[in-house]
Amino acid sequence: MGSVDSARFAKGPDMLPDRPVDNAPYHTITHAGLTIEGWSRAAVQSYWRIPELKIGFDLGAQPWDFMGTPNWFVSHTHLDHVAALPVYVARRRMMKMDPPTVYVPAEGLEDVKKLMAVMHRLDRGRQLAHLKGLTAGDEIELTREHVVTVFNTVHTIPSRGFVVWERRNKLKDEYIGLPGDKIKELKLAGTAITREVRIPIVAYTGDTAPAGLDACPACFDAKILITEMSFVRAAHRRDKIHKFGHMHLDDFVERAQRFKNELIIAGHFSTRYHPNEVRKLLDNKLPADLKARMRFWV
């Protein structure tokens, strides 16, 4: 976890943290060649990043270590998901880094620009960032190998989820088995001999009712799914939870057979719960196969 143990500083002024600045907690896990770092608690703050892809999701807070990540996808504009945006942008300017690119739901784009303008006036420092609005169906090319697609989630305000795809070019079926010189000849003649194949490697939902998850099949197929599980107690009514754009432990149990993911990271647990209660309920209720692939940010 990325938080600093304050007791270490009681030993004397020569004691230093492991990192130059350690101002927000986060967990780290590595899977399939990707590092997922982040933390999420309902109504507190949510922030995630994948350094190998140079992208982050949501800006409820901004660990100093995350400042170097240049591309951020904000799922929605509730404060626990966007409050640190001006801080992040200001830090990059202070450290003489290039302005970042930040994607937000299109419906909130103009208000986010106004927020940045207000912070410019209050802070007396320019808020330099490329702000872009996103709607469902948009595609953002990260690199030649990776593209991000956008889908709608179901929350109390306009919200988006994101899927990162790995792109590969494969020989078309009709050319499989041809000699290499023949394939080269076709290619030189301008014939399209390959087709693009996309593999979902990361899906991120932000806050959503189950309908948002269900509407994006790639969420169930991605190697890594980062999502929310805000509520776990049986006494908490699911109809009310869904109305406010969140998911319950039972929603995962009902969909256990649909999750094909290698790793599922669930966070955004309600502050009503002590971590020990969350762990106990998850341990007792989740099917063994699903539980083995899940990690809980609690």
TrEMBL record:
UniProt keyword Ribonucleoprotein present: no
The signal sequence is none
Q: Which organism is it from?
A: Gemmata obscuriglobus
Q: What name goes with this protein?
A: Metal-dependent hydrolase
Pfam families, sorted? Lactamase_B_2
Q: Which domain of life is it from?
A: Bacteria
Q: Which Gene3D superfamilies match?
A: Ribonuclease Z/Hydroxyacylglutathione hydrolase-like (3.60.15.10)
Q: Which UniProt keywords apply?
A: Hydrolase
Domain Metallo-beta-lactamase: residue ranges: 73-269
Q: Name one GO molecular function term.
A: hydrolase activity
Tell me yes or no: is Hydrolase among this UniProt entry's keywords. Answer: yes
